[in-house]
Amino acid sequence: MNGNVSIELGDAVPYLIECVKSWFGKDKLSTEAKARFERLFGMSINMASHIQCIGMWKPIPIKDIYQPTRLNQSFLSMIPELNEDVTIINLIRSNRNAIILAGPGDGKTTLMHWTYIQLLKNKEYIPILITLRWPNSIIDLEKLILDIRKVNIYSRKKKLILLVDGYDEIPLKGRKKVSQLLSEFSSLNIGNFYLTCRTHYEIYDIKQDIFWIANFNNDDRLGFCNSFIKIYGGDSNPSELLNNLDERGFESFTRHPLMLALVCLLQSIPTQELPRTPIGLIRRAIDILTLRWDESKPLSRPSIIPLDGEERVRCLMKIAYEMKAIISSNETVYEAARNHLILRQIEGVDTRIFLKELAQWYGILIPVSLDEWGFVHRTIYDFLSARYWVECGKFANDVDQGFSNWNTQSAYAMSLIPDATRFLSKAISHNCEMNVINDCLVNNAVFNPDIIADSIFKRYSKAMIGYCHYISSQSLEANIDNNYDMFRNASIPFLDSILIRAIKDSNKRVSSIIIAYTLFEFINRSIRMKKHIYEQVLNYFRSAQFIFVISKGYNSIKFILDDIPRY
Question: For residues 113 and 127, is the Cβ–Cβ distance under 8 A?
Fold first, then answer.
């Protein structure tokens, strides 16, 4: 970037404080505000400058593994010419606010951290990182806006760049508050904001450009593999590893940062067969870490604590469940660990040493400050918490007692039980956010497709009215809203069930939209439709030449019923 300055990260906090004091005006920054900025800058630099992937014994500099993150305004792979990549630096230079969406483990937080570190080196901007999973982060953001309103902002030369990470990681009330504060910030015209959020979460009252984090391309994944293997250790050839994975049908995993890290970890044992779902991959990676703990303990890691690797994972599950958030206080973490040791009837163990061993070997739960511990990735935290929730028997009981806080953890819990039908049906009837349904689908939750198709139809009957722009006897135009799109992760049997359910319903407007969305998936994925189902669809629309125009994001495709592949 133009305007770069030379600054060491160790000197960054005083440098930023001087920038902020200069920006607000001499002697205008209150003592309370100055202390708040010092705390915020210190935490941000500490977290942003290093990264710790699963299985790494200690954090490493982010520059040692980061692959340049590309953004685009479309997630339709079938129209690649419309997927022109941009970078967040492009957006900053063009003075554009942006909402950045991605799935779990796609690199949202890493992008925010990398951008923050890069902006520290530029004299044109003052970067402020707000990590919403941190305690009091919304209060910090609100006080920042109040501080700004007190000064003459129109004479300021430096622009504030507000990097807000983890909109999906706070409750609904908090999300609405953040939306309000970002709208206020935008109205001040003193800089730009960039907000990250997982896909399928509703973003309230922020009308800004939306971008998606692009999947790793071939250069990205090769660079990541090279870095990971070099840091973690191993003799795998990255190019051969990736080619082998592609040939075995695992290409989709290798284009996703978290999944690729887990793949690299699993490939340290060549005989391991890779699972085909995210939580399956996480479970297998944790199993490998457990195996390594048990195998290497006699050689290089003598421990006075008589717990094998499996018991240590169970302790991590207990801690995750008790934390209630990805970062929590020492007291909460120590208490959960002590309780687990008490239940295992193990006495005389120093909890701090025990947790230090867990952090050093597993690299999953680590100290993030003097007073707090945190999991290295929310997906891993959610999985471990959900696994404890299910295995201790509390999940089914909580749902039966009226539980309604449907989120990623509950989706993972449903993906871990033998039959999720009644739970998933309840979640849908409680108007859960679409990410819950998608997480169940991606992780192959076990359910009756006909029953869930009925639940989906009832849900869409209430929510989808208005997404059809035009319908006649010869054509239909509809928009697939990202907040209501669960079709792209549906299995073929589930798509069949949805089609059959919609065809039978008397609400033709809603049925037509749902059928159109489902047919879009048959076209997009080149799925061959069963002959008897095609005949029912043909009878419904009464013409093989019936025209569909389906918009998704910024893209639109047109097809006729006769274009549907079938057998």
Answer: no
| Residue 77 and residue 183 share a domain | yes
323 lies in some domain: no
Residue 69's alpha-carbon distances to 38, 112, 231, in angstroms, are 28, 10, 20
Residue 340, in any domain of the structure: no
* Cα 476 versus chain centre, distance: 33
Of 509, 505, 504, 514, the residue nearest 472 (C-alpha): 509
State pTM to two decimals: 0.75
Burial label for 385, CB within 10 Å (0-12, 13-18, 19+), is: buried
Residue 224, domain extent: 216-274
Contact 198, 166 (CB under 8 A): no
Element (H or E) spanning 197, and its range?
A: strand 191-198
Does the residue 246 lie in any domain?
Answer: yes
The string of pLDDT tens digits covering residues 33-88 is: 888 888 888 888 888 888 877 666 667 888 888 888 889 876 544 344 445 688 99
Q: Count Cα atoms within 13 angstroms, Cβ side, for 271.
A: 0
60 and 76 assigned to the same domain:
yes
192 & 262 share domain: no
310 assigned to some structural domain: no
Give the CA radius of gyration of the chain: 25
Number of independent structural domains in the chain: 4
Q: Output the 3-class SS for 273-307.
A: CCCCCHHHHHHHHHHHHHHHHHHHHHHHCCCCCCC
Give the sheet arrangement for strand 547-552, strand by strand: 468-471, 475-480, 547-552, 555-560
In a shared domain, residues 203 and 221: no
β-strand pairing of 98-102 with 191-198: parallel
CA distance 372 to 375: 11
Q: Are residue 40 and residue 110 in the same domain, yes or no?
A: yes
